[in-house]
Amino acid sequence: MAGMSSQRSNLADTLHGLDGRSYGNLKQIRGRYRFGPVTLFVNRVQADPFASPSKVRVRIEHADAKLPPELITDRQDRIAAADYLLRAGNTALGRFDRKAIILGRPGQEVLERTNVRIDDAGVEARLLVNLPARGRRILGHRAADLLTRDLPDLARAMFLCEKWSDGIDGLRQHVQLHRDQLELRDHLGEAGLVGFIANGAILPRSAGDSDEPMNPEQAVPFASPPELEHTVELSSGRSLTGMGIPRGVTVIVGGGYHGKSTILRALERGVHLHIAGDGREWVITDPGATAIRAEDGRAVTGDDISPFIANLPSGTDTRTFSTTNASGSTSQAANLVEAIEVGARTLLIDEDTSATNFMIRDSRMRALIPAEREPITPFVDRVRPLLDRRGVSTVLVAGGSSAFFEVADHVIALDAYVPHDVTKQAHELVGVDPDALTVTDDGSVRQPALRIPTAKALRPASKTKSARAKGTDRIQFGRAFIDLLAVSQIVDAQQTAGVAEALEYLAEIFDGRTAITEALAEIDEMLDEQGIDGLTGHRDHPGHITRPRAQEIASALNRYRELLLVE
Ligand code: ADP
Ligand code: MG
């Protein structure tokens, strides 16, 4: 114990001694220090006060932290528990200098993040710290307080459960919710459902730029139509009842402003699990479900969009379609085939963000323009072959056209936010026998050829760190920018940073023989095995990243304008 406290005074003494000296002298504090149960690692010291913050870790071993072992049994438990500790840290951070200590603030989702890690030996937080300065001079006394008093205090507040306001119970509930959500998600897959929305769920958000729930006094809680109601009994004893969306084609209709897009948006986010009180904690979607929209202007490299677009007047082969400037319909076709390529078996499509000519063509237009003069085969003609040949389900919002009634297994009408099953009426209106939905299938929906990037495809000329997130919607990759504005299922900038790291990882995998699908599977396998830290080259302190899905990594790769494929 004496040795430890002398280490402590060492760091404090060093920092006091550095007061007023030029900033570069801080380099010497790199190292490892003990403060009671807390170990502090100074992994990287910023070169000057305006550079990216210093990298510091605080750690407490399990023998001292005493987290209940039954709550951190496996990888998923630890993801949930780490999320809880990170939130506890954010609460505690209010007492400290928020500008100096950056812990990373989680949103409504429970995701695997680097910020807090629970391993077999202990639990640690990875912090970014702005070491204090005046001009380019070290504020040594402030730095001593920050590193030798505040950070150990923060670690205790995060990791010692006797410091938590709701004790162990809060952690227990957090982990149990996560377990229940995962069990429900597994159950849905087995029950043939692509999505589930529990009765009582609060789907609308408090504002267009917020992910927090609408005030429950204003929101109409979700209530399933009786025809689609599904009840699940979980092994914890929890029972849930709500709307199950079966595999197949589901169309959501209803008047403008009646809540259609809100449901679809909740399903988009249902690929991730949400915290208690979010309102969507029991909205669970097939984890590979992907939102598909039009995105004119994007680049496309070698996609097989021939099921949707063929016979272009230019004679271009649309089985390997490339463009630097896609139209509304070609971009939506590209987004769709790319999603299926990485394994999406549920597509989520909203009329608000779709290209009309991609989705439908009415009978008069079909009469006026002969099929051989129209390159586009609309989605309405392909939605059943996609299901039958590729196992791809679709949930679609379409308030402006009845075109999808003929190909829908289920039609749900929203009336003042309340869903009704109107499948029977919709089928009657178009004269369809629900047991024999008319399907035109010319066999053009099939598994496309593998796309294989060249060995240099992701190696930009510049030698500097190549991929860097710029907020949530953009990645700088070499000198190019990847625009992710249309990739709506990325939750925040920290997940975009995860996508950027994944691009660097992909650069190492691509050798001119490995297909995009194989490389993404390799990343997922590595992540399942090593955890999120495995994505970065900096094992001692990986910075702040969140695990992205393969879908979002692929989305960034596919939008990289300099992507090159092997012919
Ligand atoms: P639509 O796509 O049918 O035009 P939206 O889903 O965009 O409608 O919803 C319109 C408005 O209604 C939004 O401001 C949304 O926040 C709000 N809203 C959606 N669902 C609910 C609900 N269950 N309770 C209260 N307000 C809701
Ligand atoms: Mg809408």
Give me a quick take on this structure:
With 567 residues, the protein is α+β, with helices and mostly antiparallel strands. The chain is 32% helix and 19% strand. The strands form seven sheets. Strands 1, 2, 3, 4, 6 and 7 form a six-stranded antiparallel sheet that branches. A six-stranded mixed sheet has the order 16-19-20-13-21-22, with helices on both faces.
What features would you describe in this structure?
This protein is α+β, with helices and mostly antiparallel strands and 567 residues long. Among the domains are: 2-165; 468-559, no CATH class. It contains 14 helices and 25 strands. It has helices at residues 2-18, 62-65, 75-92, 140-159, 167-190, 260-269, 328-341, 356-359, 363-368, 379-390, 423-430, 493-509, 516-530, 550-559; strands spanning 31-35, 38-44, 54-61, 101-102, 109-110, 116-118, 122-129, 133-134, 137-138, 193-198, 229-233, 239-246, 249-254, 273-274, 283-285, 290-292, 300-303, 321-323, 346-350, 393-397, 410-415, 418-421, 467-469, 474-477, 480-483. The strands form seven sheets. Strands 1, 2, 3, 4, 6 and 7 form a six-stranded antiparallel sheet that branches. Strands 16-19-20-13-21-22 form a six-stranded mixed sheet, sandwiched between helices. The chain has a four-stranded antiparallel sheet with strand order 11-12-10-15, with helices on both faces. A hairpin with a 2-residue loop joins strand 1 (31-35) and strand 2 (38-44). The longest helix has 24 residues, at 167-190. It is globular. Mean pLDDT is 94; it is low at 1-6. The site of adenosine-5'-diphosphate has 15 residues, from helix 6.
